[in-house]
Specification:
The complex is a heterotrimer of chains A (190), B (85) and C (60). Chain A has 190 residues and is mainly alpha-helical. Chain A is 65% helix and 0% strand. The radius of gyration of chain A is 18 Å and the shape is elongated. Chain B is mainly α and 85 residues long. Chain B has one domain (3-82). In chain B, helix 1 runs antiparallel to helix 2. The N and C termini of chain B lie close together (9 Å). Chain C is mostly helical and 60 residues long. Chain C has one domain. Chain C has 2 helices and no strands. The chains are: A mainly alpha (190), B mainly alpha (85), C mainly alpha (60). Chains in contact: A-B, A-C, B-C.
């Protein structure tokens, strides 16, 4: 089970509302390589991992991804807070506002709703861990694009934190892959 | 939110982040003693700090983790997305 | 230089093999991290990692 803690993993500071940046950030909230995809991917794949350690790692990283999802959601919420519909008219978010007002709906930067088709769980631990490592790289790249799309020092700062987490998770998944491959090799011998 | 509360929350975030990093490290290096000792030390400091925070500002968690004064305090303080850090 | 003739590389390969019994073709590996100096809690949160060897700042 999970227990909610009433705080963010990393503090979010937002200078002022920014409709365009809110829209771009949706990539990491409800897009293919979003924090939501990451959380659901790892928390789904963990059931069929061959070692207890790897089940633990996927549980723990999956849990941290939920905290990241909350951070991205908070940034979007703050960037849209108090923006009146008149200002959304003719902007990239006009269509979004029509359907969701100022709610934080899991869709990507182009408005495509989140789907489980963004993730895979093959039941093959080597294959799944490769997907996880690729996912961390894709998310890192997306964060780099996002960092270059904003001048807000608060948003930049939080994005840099999230980007660095992708690097650390990649390392841990790589170590898990080493262990799983070793484990599978042992089984083949006997 | 008063600056002292923000400051305490920041310290909790810092210690908890160290605990997260050490958790993930220990997940793939479970036999190593030094990070384990650091993890246990960090966790003790974190728990103390959380208790101090909760005495002043109310529960950081419900579901049987933290107790509450009357009336039910869980929703008294602002939610994380409404806090100006 | 060929990795087989490079003593530093040889040492590195030995280290890797101490952890994984056999390094095979068509398999991916990541070097094992070793526990060393860590950042202070404040610096760790600011940087996004506790480990200096995993810190990869982005220059923009």
């Amino acid at each position: 089970m999970w227990i909610y803690e009433k705080k963010l993993e990393y503090p979010v500071r937002v200078l002022q509302p920014d409709i365009r940046m809110a829209k771009y950030l949706m990539a990491q909230y409800g897009g293919p390589d979003s924090e939501l995809s990451a959380a659901v991917r790892y928390l789904t794949q963990r059931y069929t991992m061959p070692t207890n350690r790897t089940k633990g790692l996927l549980t723990d990283i999956g849990t941290e991804e939920l905290a990241h999802w909350e951070i991205v959601g908070t940034m979007i919420y703050r960037l849209l807070k108090g923006v009146p519909p008149e200002q959304l008219r003719g902007t990239d978010l006009g269509g979004y506002f029509t359907q969701h007002d100022n709610a934080v709906y899991p869709a990507d930067a182009s408005g495509v709703p989140w789907t489980a088709a963004y993730i895979q769980a093959t039941g093959d631990p080597v294959t799944d861990l490769h997907e996880d490592m690729a996912a961390e790289q894709k998310a890192r790249t997306t964060y780099e694009h996002l960092i270059r799309l904003t001048d807000d020092p608060g948003v930049k700062d939080t994005l840099k934190f999230l980007r660095e987490r992708e690097v650390v998770h990649f390392q841990r998944f790589g170590e898990a892959l080493n262990e799983v491959q070793e484990e599978l090799a042992k089984k083949k011998v006997f | 939110m008063d600056p002292y509360q923000i400051q305490m929350l920041r310290e909790i975030q810092q210690l908890e982040f160290v605990a997260i990093e050490l958790t993930l490290y220990l997940d793939t290096h479970p036999d190593e003693l030094e990070p384990l000792q650091d993890y246990n030390r960090t966790t003790e400091r974190l728990n103390q700090l959380k208790m101090q925070y909760e005495r002043l500002y109310g529960p950081l968690a419900a579901y049987g983790v933290s107790t509450s004064k009357a009336p039910w305090q869980w929703a008294e303080q602002p939610w994380p997305w409404d806090i100006n850090y | 230089m060929n990795t087989r003739d490079d003593p530093a590389k040889k040492e590195e390969n030995l280290k890797t093999s101490a952890y994984s019994t056999s390094v095979q073709l068509a398999q991916a590996y990541v070097p094992w991290q070793r526990y060393g100096v860590t950042y202070s809690p404040q610096e760790a949160l600011e940087k996004g990692t506790l480990f200096p060897e995993l810190y990869r700042p982005y220059p923009y």
